[in-house]
Amino acid sequence: MEQKRRLAIFDVDGTIFRSSLFIQLTEALIDAGLFPQEARRAYEREHKKWLEREGDYQAYVDAMVRTFRKHLKGVAYAEFADIAEQVVDTQWKRVYRYTRDMLTDLAERDYYLLAISHSPKTILDFFCPRLGFHKVYGTVFALGPHDRFTGEVVDEHIIANKANIIKRVIEKETFSLTHSIGVGDTESDIPFLEMVQTPICFNPNQKLYRHARRNEWKVVVERKDVVYDIN
After folding, report:
1. Does the predicted TM-score (pTM) go above 0.90?
2. What is the Cα–Cα distance from 99 to 201, expressed in whole angstroms?
């Protein structure tokens, strides 16, 4: 009987990468002229409110997502991928020490490392292999004639709920959720964190933190060069 491999599942933005690959990519696309300069106006108000702690981070991201999808239509995939690769080349080491070291340790213990993110899969495919991930799931945008984006998302209902991805992986591959580990930072990670044996909430937002406390999940915070294990 084939032995099932242990699984470790990570969110990426804010969990490994110390920012958001999606945000960095969107800004780079504007700087490169693939998106118009005025695109920033659609989310700068929410960004300012978040920076001044008067607004919600998710509201800022949601505004940026709407802008991204609006202006992605018609962009050539090759140009998009070039910008994504440039972002990763310059920023891939900007990661949290805790999760970076955790990935190294898990790889040495022969865990299968799986990344699940709502960021575009194109940029994740450049970023995640550098951290040792075996497979990555992200948002896939449809291509039309001449390899230009249509603005539509492929299988959006699947990636919207990260637990759906885990179910698909378990069905197709030889993995076990026994001794499985999951790491996330927001409430969107709750569905897959509920599936693993050891859920870890890393630098959680308020909604995830409250859920973690109710369910006695491990909470870890990294601030500057100190890691706090909150029990």
Report:
1. yes
2. 11
